[in-house]
Design a protein that fits this description.
six-stranded antiparallel beta sheet, eight-stranded mixed beta sheet, Carbamate kinase, about 425 residues, binds magnesium ion, 14 helices, alpha/beta, binds aspartic acid
Length: about 425
């Protein structure tokens, strides 16, 4: 079995779906994981915001736009107006759910997951039906029945042990050898729909590869492979042919948008190679990520945007050490805030964190627990692996740098957005 993952950008229009068909061409024993088409997840987040704000018109408007976008793709695929009943049903369900009374702020994340999951449910339904129509016999798999996740919403991990039998059982029951399943979604032990974190489809594919003992996983992307930097920000970017798991996980964690950071572990645990390949040209080699690859020779630059720097100090000037760390991190965990960089001195703890919904609530809770908290916004976190003197001068120095941490090979700076 091989696992192929197609992201939203690759299947954002009918041409992309036709190209997917070309890529899988004569493959058999294939598990295909697909994300929501184009920017559908963002649009569904708007539907959720409508629910949150009790703004029915806002929900209706966004549901209608999402429906129209997919209807357009369907008619282009079938070269004429075409009604896919299952897709209509999904949209009716979504509209019905968004209009349901009884939303409560304490359940925001539960509602969020329920709503945004429709992106993948719809995309996989369209793609599965199109492939069948185009002569590629396949089976649509409902990942909510296969992936059992933690009992938490918006950023759930998959319980691999609990999911293995379900996924294998679902496939074993089918005659087909090609399967189409949703990235990004699963269900909690209580049966409610969960999502695995934004951009989580890579992780879904890796978990499926792990459970199915896949010979490889391929992520088909709109780039030629993994580059050592984002060419939009660092013009001298070059492609990397091979990477090892360790470098990849560090890169992904630092914010490189190659692959979701949770993707590597399930693959590494079974030694499954990961290919990052260009969606536009199947003949190009892309990048291969596997255990044996040598460390990369070019410096790697990763910029993580939308960061906030929190500086936390105990109000009575007592040392901010282990015990206080425990209090602080328990609070951050409660508000789902991830620390991307941690720096401490006797009385200060500086944390570079993603700008998320709950930051101000978390700051309130820290203050209530006896800490002074300063918040610096508009920050970014730059990581340079394998830095040179020149790169150091260019990126790790200067008045815009608020915090700097370095080892022999890597320097990380929190700096004001330039
Ligand atoms: N559709 C989801 C997102 O946009 C998951 C993914 O693309 O991997 O975040
Ligand atoms: Mg996406």
């Amino acid at each position: 079995m091989k696992v192929y993952k197609f992201g939203g950008a690759s299947v954002r229009n009918a041409e992309g779906v036709r190209n997917l068909r070309k890529i899988i061409d004569d493959e058999q024993n294939l598990f295909i994981i697909v994300s929501a088409m184009g920017k559908t997840t963002n649009a569904l987040e708007k539907v959720f915001e409508g629910v949150q704000q009790g703004d029915r018109a806002m929900c209706d408007e966004h549901v209608a736009a999402i429906r129209e976008y997919h209807t357009g793709i369907i008619s282009e695929l079938w070269r004429g107006p075409r009604r896919l009943e299952r897709v209509e049903e999904l949209f009716d369900e979504l509209a019905g759910f968004a209009a349901r009374p009884g939303y409560r702020a304490e359940e925001a994340e539960l509602w969020y997951d329920r709503i945004v999951a429709y992106g993948e449910l719809v995309s996989t339904t369209i793609i599965s039906e199109y492939l069948n129509h185009a002569g590629v016999s396949n089976r649509w798999i409902d990942m909510r029945r296969c992936f059992v996740t933690e009992q938490r919403h918006k950023d759930a991990g998959v319980d691999i042990a609990a999911s293995a039998q379900r996924l294998k059982g679902a496939l074993a029951a089918c005659e087909e050898t090609i399967f189409v399943g949703q990235g990004f979604i699963g269900a909690a032990p209580d049966g409610t729909t969960t999502t695995l974190g934004r951009e989580g489809s890579d992780y879904s594919a890796a978990v499926a590869a792990h459970i199915l003992d896949a010979e490889s996983m391929s992520v088909w992307k709109d780039v030629d492979g993994v580059l050592n930097a984002d060419p939009k920000i660092f013009p001298d970017a070059v492609q990397i042919a091979e990477l090892n798991y360790l470098d990849t996980i560090e890169l992904a964690y630092s914010g490189a948008q190659i692959i979701h950071p949770k993707t590597i572990k399930p693959l590494q645990n079974k030694n499954i190679p990961l290919y990052v390949r260009p969606f536009g040209d199947k003949r190009k080699p892309g990048t291969v990520i596997r255990g044996m690859s040598a460390p990369v020779e070019v410096p790697i630059l990763i910029l993580k945007k939308d960061q906030v720097l929190l500086t936390i100090r105990s109000r009575d000037f007592s040392f901010v050490l282990e015990e206080k760390f425990a209090t602080i991190f328990a609070l951050l965990e409660r508000f789902r805030i991830k620390a991307n960089l941690i720096h401490n001195s006797a009385v200060n703890l500086s944390l570079c964190v993603d700008r998320t919904w709950h930051i101000d609530e978390a700051i309130g809770a820290l203050r209530a627990s006896g800490f002074d908290v300063m918040k610096a916004e508009n920050m970014e976190l730059l990581t340079v692996r394998g830095y040179t003197d020149e790169l150091w001068r260019r990126y790790a120095d200067g008045p815009q740098v608020f915090v700097r941490q370095s080892t022999q090979s890597t320097v990380r700076v929190v700096r004001k957005r330039g």
